[in-house]
Amino acid sequence: MTKLSIFIFSVIFIMSFSLQETSAQEIQADITVHSDRLDFQYRTNVSSMQRDLENYINNQRFTDIDWEGDKIPVDIQIYLTGGANNRYTAKLVIMSARFLDGPGEGQSPSMKIYDDKWAFEYGLGANLTYNDRRYDAFVTLIDYYMLMIIGVDMDTYGEADGDPAFNQALNLLYLAAGQNGIGFDTYSEMGKFSRYNLLKEFTDMRFTAFRKLIFAYYVDGLDVMGFDKEKAMKAMKETLKSMAEFKKDKLSGPSILMQFFFDTKAREIANIFNGDDDAELWGYLKYMDPSNSMLYDEARDGKLGSEY
Prior knowledge:
- The protein is an alpha+beta fold.
- It has two domains: 27-203, no CATH class; 209-300.
- Helices cover 48% and strands 16% of the residues.
- It has ten helices and four strands, in the order αβαβββαααααααα.
- It has helices at residues 3-24, 49-58, 139-155, 163-178, 195-202, 208-225, 229-250, 256-272, 279-288, 293-300; strands spanning 27-34, 72-84, 87-99, 107-121.
- Helix 4 runs antiparallel to helix 5 (195-202).
- The protein is globular, with a radius of gyration of 22 Å.
C-alpha cells in the first residue's frame, strides 16, 4: 500500500469513527447559569460552569443505545441561589423537545421539570466525567435528568422503548440515595413530585399502558398533524379519552406521571383544540389536569392564539 493510500485510508477511518461517535451522542444542550443572586466574590468559581457543563453533556454518550437521528434539544436553566467556599445551592429548570414528522420540521415539548433540591461543590474549570458507579452531587443529578430525557424521547418513538434509559436512571437514583444525596430520597409523600416518584411510575408496569398512550399522542397525533390535521386531531381526542379512562379505571390516587405529561403538554393541547366545541374533550382534560382548568376554559372559548 502506498503512502498516499495509507493516508487516505487513515483520513476515511478517522472521519468514520468521528461520525459514529457523534451519532451515538444523544443530547444537544444549551445552558444558562444565573449567578446574580450570589455575592460578587463567590461568582468566580462558577464563571466556567456554563461552558464546562455544555462541553460535558454535548460530548458525553449517556447510554449504550445506537442513537439514530437528531440529538434531543435540551434547554437547561441553572439558578444559583446561594454559595460560599465552593459550596452552592441551586434550582434547576430543564426543558426538552421532540422533533416532529411532516412539513416544517417542528418541535414539541417533551419534558418540563423544575427541581429546587440541589446542593453541590463546584470549582473553576471543573473536570466533569461520567461514572455511573460514583455519586457526585453535581454531575449525578445532571446524568439522572439526561437519562430521563432520553427515556422520554424514546417512549415517543416506540411503545415503552425508554426502559433501558429509565433503568439506568433508577440505578443512579439508588446510588445517590445510598449516599444520602439531597433530593434522591426513595420515600416521599404519595402524589407529590420527587425524582423517585416520577421514575417509579415510569418503571412501574402498571403505568405501561399510559406510556403507550403517550406514544400514540405523538405518533398518531402530532406526527400526522402536518399531513392531515383533521385525522391527527381525531386521533388525539381518542388518545386523551383513553387517558381519562386509564385514570378512572386504573388509578386510586394522584399520578406523578400523568401530571408530568400535562405539565409539559397542557399549553400545546389547549392551542391545538382552541375553539373546539367538544364539551366531552374539555371535561376529560379538566378531569385529568384540574390545575390547568382555567387554561382549558379559555381554549374552549377560543381565547388562545390560533397558531399551533
